[in-house]
Amino acid sequence: MASTSAARSKSSRSLAVKLLSVSAVAIACVLALTFLVVILQVRERTVAITLKQAEAEAEATAQAMSGKIDALSGATRSLAGLVERGIAAGKLDRAAITTMLPAQVEKFDLVFGAWIVDTEQGLDGKLGPKDDAVQGTNADGVFTPYWVRGASGLELMRPVVDRNAEYYRLAATSKRGAATEPYEEPSANNLLMMTVTQPIIIDGRLAAVTGLDVALGSLADSLKSERPFGEGRVYLLSGTGKWLAAPDAAQVMKEYAAEGTDQVKTALADGKTVTLNDVVGSDGGSVYRVVYPFDLPGLNARWAVAVDVPVAAVSSVVNEQTKILVIGGMFILAAVIGALLLAVRTFVQRPMASLLGDVGRMSEGQLEQPVAGQERSDEIGKVAVALEAFRYRLADGHRLEAANAEQRQLTESERRQAEAERARAAEEQRKVVEALGRGLANLSRGDLTSRITENFPPSYVELRDNFNDTMDSLERTILQLNQTVHSLNAGIGEISRSSDNLSRRTEQQAASLEETAAAMNEIAEQMHTSTRNAGEAASKVNEACSDADRSNAVVRKAITAMEGIEDSSRKVSQIIGVIDEIAFQTNLLALNAGVEAARAGEAGKGFAVVAQEVRELAQRSAQAAKEIKALISASSAQVQEGVSLVGETGSALTRIGEQILSVNKLIQDISASAREQSSGLQEINVAVNNMDQVTQQNAAMVEETTAAANLLNDEAHTLRDMVMRFSVSTSGETSHRRAA
Questions:
Q1: What does residue 132 show for φ and ψ, rounded to 5 degrees?
Q2: Is the whole model's pTM more than 0.90, yes or no?
Q3: Euclidean distance between CA atoms 360 and 544, whole angstroms
Q4: 144, 497, 711, 715 from 489: Cα distances, Å
Q5: Left, alpha or beta for 145 (phi > 0: left; psi -120 to 50: alpha)?
Q6: Are 123 and 143 spatial neighbours (Cβ–Cβ below 8 Å)?
């Protein structure tokens, strides 16, 4: 008994363990797969966001670089423009230009030196004096002043020039601003530099090239201090792919030779950002490298900013998310397993142990105690109910076995008595069977007049009477059936003729309805076409109305723009008036200056010439201001006339829009009426089609009725032939009648 209980408990525990094991493994697999997908998605999104931010960092750095270089380029353009205007007007000479250059160096901390080199024809069409420091010429008479930062301040140098060198050739050939490739200057302790150059063009002729030598060390140092994402690095590449700010100082001005060399060259050529994966960073770790090319404004040159994003910075975020997911998953798995353990113990293990105990008692013959758990509505309850029924059957079997033994003895005694009774009854049955056999033989031949007249034992008298009554009833039934067959034949013939007539009329009606349905379909199609055409017309009118509204808006904008032009013209007229007054005052000042120069005598002759030129310039400015003012007045009058014409156009478009709206309303009313008529015709068409289908169904039913009537007629003839087989009595005689 104890071993049986232990086995049952072990079996129950084994089932619970299996359920828990399978559930835990399934949940763990689902959680693992879910976490894997989530982690991959988190990593992908994190990498994308980080690289996007790195690109933004690179763009900001590039804009800062471009701003600094653009300021230098602007200063060079301003100097070139000032020299061009001064030389063309005869106001500047070599000495004055030489004194202008130091301001360029002092203005910018990045500038190492400022210089000008004239062409072989000279700045003003001729070479200057040789070796003149004031005039800024070297020993060959070439105008080449070069102000550089020295130990004691700015120093003027007049070097020998090489017009085939890049700093001169780029601007001289293209006649546009240019920037040289960065280089290391040996005379300045290999200082990393670049040169920003600008051509000086006078009267369409290249007269000289001016430029600024820019020290790039401070730019590179500013990038070294940047730490994107905490441990990231920012570098700088030249247009030819050389390091300007490199991971290692030894790599400066060397070709880019790290991972993705071809991609970097392509990015510099196309100007498109590229991201390199699995690049070895300066600390030996793996990084993402974002290379962002950018153009130096107005210098026909392109550099690139490289931002290194440590893979560890991305992985740390992903690892943190992974840790949170794993810990949460472990808690979820533990909670689910605990709930499953409680559920299995409550709903499976305990009920199964109780059932196994009941089965054990039943197997040992203990059938007095009912099976527990029958009140449950689950499968355990169903098993308990089945076991309870089985217990009842086992108990009934024991009781029946005892009762059967007693019944067998009583049955044996009764059997012997019944044996004698059966022998007597068998003789009586033989006589009765012979009489019934003769009567049934006559019946099988169709003789319904046969009756049993022999004497039967009392127990069989009722059988004889029943047989005779049956023969009488059968004879009357056959007589009545014969009459019914005659009536049935007549009725079936009438039904067949009526069905034929109804079938013909139904076919005619179906044909008429089919023609009507076809006509209604054509009318409905025409109405649908009319409705569609009306809708298209309404759509076109709506488009015309929209075009009119847009034209009105354009007219209003044109009026506003012309009013703005008129207002601007008035303001320009006011400015021209101010210029006229300035010219007048300048003329007076020049006149006073001329008077003062005349008073100065010989010493003021040069100043008198300048004053005379200023007076002439002021007079020309006043005359030009008057002409511009007259042109602006004429333009204002034309603008006024244009405003009036555009206003009339707007009024006309407004009237056209109102008329289009009226037409649109009429067309919409027509379209709505057509849709209503089309809808009504469709409903009528559906009704006619339904009638056509019903009529066709009726025709089919009439045909089926006709066929059934014909079949019934054939069956009636068959029934008449069968009735003719029986012979019945007429006026006390046997007669063989056939149904007519």
A1: -120, 110
A2: no
A3: 95
A4: 140, 13, 12, 10
A5: beta
A6: yes
Q: Distances in Å between the alpha carbon of 398 and those of 117, 367, 390, 395?
A: 132, 10, 13, 5
457 in Cβ contact with 424 (< 8 Å): no
Query: What is the distance between the alpha carbons of residues 70 and 73, in angstroms, rounded to a whole number?
Result: 5
Return the amino acid letter for 567.
Answer: D
3-state secondary structure of 237: strand
The 3-state DSSP class for residue 341 equals helix
Closest CA to 27 of 347, 332, 348: 332
User: Token digits for 597?
Assistant: 């120069």
Q: Pull the structure tokens for residue 544.
A: 């015309």
For the stretch 182-212, what's the b/e string if a residue is b when 16 or more beta carbons lie within 10 angstroms of its beta carbon? bbeeeeeeeebbbbbbbbbebeeebbbbbbb
* Contacting residues for 8 by C-beta, under 8 A, at least 6 apart: 353, 356, 357, 360
The owner of tokens 């949170």 is 324
Segment holding 319, helix H or strand E? helix 311-344
pLDDT, tens digit, for every residue of 537-593? 777 777 777 776 777 777 677 777 777 777 777 777 777 777 777 877 776 676 677
CB-facing half-sphere around the CA of 19: CA atoms within 13 A: 19
Across 447-468, b (16+ Cβ under 10 Å) vs e yields: bbebebeeebeeebeeebeebe
Confidence bin at 208 (pLDDT 50/70/90): very high
Residue 236 forms beta bridges with which residues? Answer: 245, 305
Write out the two tokens for 54: 């790195």
CA distance 708 to 696: 18
- Write the CA distances from 508 to 496, 502, 692, integer angstroms: 19, 10, 11
| 645-664 residue pLDDT tens | 777 777 776 777 677 777 77
Of these ranges, 4-8, 175-179, 398-402, the one predicted with the greatest mean pLDDT is 175-179
Residues in CB range of 643: below 8 A, 6 or more apart: 559, 562, 563, 566
CB 177 within 8 A of CB 171: yes
Q: Given this model, what pLDDT does residue 365 score?
A: 65
For residue 419, report the phi and psi dihedrals to the nearest 5 degrees.
-65, -45
Label each residue of 417-466 as H, E or C: HHHHHHHHHHHHHHHHHHHHHHHHHHHHCCECCCCCCCCCCHHHHHHHHH
Name the β-bridge partners of 735: 728
- What kind and span of H or E run contains 481? helix 458-600
Residues 46 and 94: their CA atoms lie apart, in Å, by 62
Q: What is the pLDDT of residues 727-737, one digit of tens each?
A: 776 644 443 33
Q: CA-to-CA distance for 256 and 267, rounded, in angstroms?
A: 13
* Phi/psi at 502 (5° precision): -65, -35
Written as six digits, the tokens of 372 are 């527990």
Quickly state the pLDDT bin for 293 (edges 50, 70, 90): very high
Please state which of the ranges 151-160, 356-365, 674-683, 731-740 shows the lowest mean pLDDT: 731-740
Q: Degrees (nearest 5) of the Cα angle 41, 47, 49?
A: 100
The amino acid occupying position 234 is: V
The Cβ-side half-sphere exposure at 183, using a 13 Å CA radius, reads 14
Interatomic CA distance for residues 387 and 356, integer angstroms: 11
Using CA atoms, how far apart are residues 559 and 552, in angstroms rounded to an integer?
A: 10
Domains and CATH numbers, the chain: 53-218 (3.30.450.20), 461-723 (1.10.287.950)
* C-alpha distance from residue 58 to each of 72, 263, 309, 317 (Å): 21, 17, 11, 22
Q: Report whether 312 contacts 323 (CB < 8 A).
A: no
DSSP state at residue 371: P
- The C-alpha angle with vertex 534 and arms to 528 and 540, in degrees rounded to 5, equals 140
Task: With H, G, I as helix, E, B as strand and everything else as coil, classify residue 651.
Answer: helix
Residue with tokens 């003149």: 132
Residues for the chain: how many in total? Answer: 740
Give the Cβ contact number of residue 176 at 10 Å: 13
